[in-house]
Amino acid sequence: MRLPHRFGMLFAAIALLTAPTAGAEDWPSRPVKMIVSYPAGGSADAIARPYADALSKRFGQPFVIENRAGAAGAVGTEAAARSAADGYTLFASPNPSLVLLPQIRQTPYDPRDFVPVAGMGSFVYGFSVLPSLGPKTLDELIALARRKPGSLTYASPGSGSVTNLRGEALKVLAGIDMLHVPYRTGAESLIDFLGGRVDVMIDSVQFPHVKAGKALLLAVTSDRRHPDFPDVPTVAEAGYPIDLPTWAGIYVPRGTPAAIIDRLAEAMREIVADPEMQERVLKIGFFPMTETPAQLAAAYDRDVESYSTWVRKTGLKIE
């Protein structure tokens, strides 16, 4: 298993290599592309779009989302890694593309190809079932799985996704057997979940249906309860500590001028601090993030260790 190289160890050196160059002072002077390595309509796309809109207004140039989905995020990540380091291609991505994928498959990119600039939001996933299934708590779901080993199914947006890893981690912690059913996107899995063709959903796309009473949220995967669901415990509170921090950030290719990184990071800090943006981010299933580039680099190092622990425990691999 090949662990990704650490951002934290390299961040200072990278900063020294990204000296200001001609043209950095007037960046952006033309449209900026934001590559999202997942399909339109998914969680990664949903969190990127409000920031693209805000950055467009801030700088007076279009920040255009380009969805490059495929291979659990590897296709878009490779495209971003091969882009020119001139500030006109940003990579808006959940951290598993750089933390998880390189641990379970050979990737056509290296995490060292990127410099983290700003966080967009930390994901709030949830374990949900349809009311007709019966369980009203995570413990009751686990008890049902023990009574019917191998009969329950859980959905994910693809083999090797963090959702897949969360499902396998619960199986290990609880000593249960559930069948993994991979889909291409969270939106596709939601259709089958609401239709009763898959038993457990581990995502945020079902939250509107939870509010409508069509689905029952058993636990959330974040480190705190979601304000829209104050009575729903975290997975850790329910007794199953699955430490897999998942957040979406904006990255640039290594070698991007430091002046551009600084301007973008400062703009993002102000955008995230806007109460309207914070409310918008919460509504789509994320907690806002205010970390600096250096703090994100340190978070990456911690994430590598947490993810590698669960990859070893679950034996996760691309199916």
Protein model, in words:
It contains 12 helices and 11 strands. The protein has 319 residues and is α/β, with parallel strands linked by helices. The chain has 2 domains: 186 residues, Bordetella uptake gene, domain 1 (D-Maltodextrin-Binding Protein, domain 2, 3-Layer(aba) Sandwich), CATH 3.40.190; 95 residues, 3-Layer(aba) Sandwich (D-Maltodextrin-Binding Protein, domain 2). The strands form 2 sheets. Strands 2-1-3-10-4-11 form a 6-stranded mixed beta sheet, sandwiched between helices. α7 packs across α12. The chain is globular and about 65 Å long.
- For the residues shown, what is the average pLDDT? 90
Counting DSSP E segments of at least 2 residues, the number of strands comes to 11
What percent of the residues sit in helical stretches (DSSP H or I)? 40-55%
Overall shape: globular
Write the topology of this structure.
Elements: H1 7-17, E1 32-36, H2 43-59, E2 63-67, H3 74-81, E3 89-94, H4 96-99, H5 101-104, E4 114-123, E5 126-129, H6 138-147, E6 153-156, H7 162-174, E7 179-182, H8 186-194, E8 200-203, H9 207-211, E9 216-220, E10 247-253, H10 258-273, H11 275-283, E11 286-287, H12 293-314
Helix pairs in contact: 7-12
List keywords for this structure.
319 residues; D-Maltodextrin-Binding Protein, domain 2; 2 domains; 6-stranded mixed beta sheet; 11 strands
Give a concise summary.
With 319 residues, the chain is α/β, with parallel strands linked by helices. 40% of the residues lie in helices and 18% in strands.
